Amino acid sequence: MASQNRRLPAKGRDEGILAKFSQSQIVLRGRETAGEAATVAKKLLRSTGRAAWIAGTTFLVLVVPLIIEMDREAQMNELEMQQASLLGTPPPSLAPPPPK
């Protein structure tokens, strides 16, 4: 029982020190700064998400149709070259220039 009595005051002193430490200006200012940093990070994350949404939808609306059209053009050129080779004429890219 004597050993328990010695421990209780020491524990009480630790809580007093912790309470004083948690009430100090440095700790309070640190908590305030951490809260402000979290708010700024939240706003930044939200605006980054909006920017990603804008970039993604712009890509879908403008770039994807362009890629599809370029693929169609390449397929048409390949088809013309195959038809020209079957007919025995040189492909348009290898044909001599017309005389002047």
From TrEMBL:
Mark the transmembrane ranges.
Answer: 51-68
Residue ranges, annotated region (Disordered):
79-100
Similarity remark:
Belongs to the Tom22 family.
A GO-annotated cellular component: mitochondrial outer membrane
Q: Where in the cell is it found?
A: Mitochondrion outer membrane
Organism lineage string: Eukaryota, Viridiplantae, Streptophyta, Embryophyta, Tracheophyta
**Cross-referenced InterPro entries, in alphabetical order?**
Tom22, Tom22_pln
Segments of skewed composition (Pro residues) = 89-100
Q: What is this protein called?
A: Mitochondrial import receptor subunit TOM9-2
Sorted UniProt keywords: Membrane, Mitochondrion, Mitochondrion outer membrane, Protein transport, Receptor, Translocation, Transmembrane, Transmembrane helix, Transport
Q: How does it sit in the membrane?
A: Single-pass membrane protein
One of the protein's GO biological processes: intracellular protein transport
Give the top-rank taxon of the lineage listed in the UniProt record for this protein. Eukaryota
Q: What is the predominant subcellular site recorded for this chain? A: mitochondrion
PANTHER family the record matches? MITOCHONDRIAL IMPORT RECEPTOR SUBUNIT TOM9-2 (PTHR46867), OS02G0131600 PROTEIN (PTHR46867:SF9)
Is the keyword Transmembrane assigned to this protein? yes
